[in-house]
Amino acid sequence: QVQLVESGGGLVQAGGSLRLSCAASGRTLSGYAMAWFRQAPGKEREFVAAIAWSGVNTLYTDSVKGRFTISRDNAKNTVYLQMNSLKPEDAAVYYCAARVGFMYTAELKYDYWGQGTQVTVSS
């Protein structure tokens, strides 16, 4: 069983930056792909970014390419999402997710989820 806890959310002005963290406990993340999803009020949860166990391969949704960077520190059992040039449309609850094996963009593929962290972007 893997427990995931997100942190780092908050209020930021448009154009600003935040770094989200997702700390895993319960077992090592060896062999796990990790991802970030987000859900804005009144909208479905959507894929943001994913990273393979090795950290070499990553995926991003088009709207965040060039602005967000996903990374991981396997020694610390932690995954990060660096968010730059934030826009009001990035405001959402951000969730960390994990699964054994390959990374996917579909949320149904992920087995473990954190409780989420709120990101608010003021215009």
Offer a concise description of the structure.
This protein is mainly β and 123 residues long. Helix content is 0%, strand content 51%.
Model description:
There is one protein chain. The protein contains no helices and eleven strands. It starts with a strand and ends with a strand. The strands form two sheets. Strands 2, 4, 5, 6, 9, 10 and 11 form a seven-stranded mixed sheet that branches. A four-stranded antiparallel sheet has the order 1-3-8-7, with no helix packed on it. It is globular and about 40 Å long. 0% of the residues lie in helices and 51% in strands. With 123 residues, the protein is mainly beta. The model has no long low-confidence stretch (mean pLDDT 96).
Features:
four-stranded antiparallel sheet; mainly beta; globular; 123 residues; seven-stranded mixed sheet; single chain
